[in-house]
Amino acid sequence: MRAVNKRQPNKRQPKTRQLNTRKPNIHKPRVNTQLGQAAVRIFAANDRMNQVLIERLDPAAWRAKPPGKVRTIAAIFTHMHNVRCKWVRLTAPHLKAPRQLNRTHCTPKQARAGLAESAARCAEMLAEALGGGSRVTTFLRDGWARPWPAGPEMLCYMLAHEAHHRGQVCMLAHQLGFPLPGQVTSELWNWEKLWKQCRAPRGPS
Question: Which of 1.20.120.450, 3.30.450.20, 3.20.20.70, 3.90.1200.10 would CATH assign to domain 33-197?
Answer without folding.
Answer: 1.20.120.450
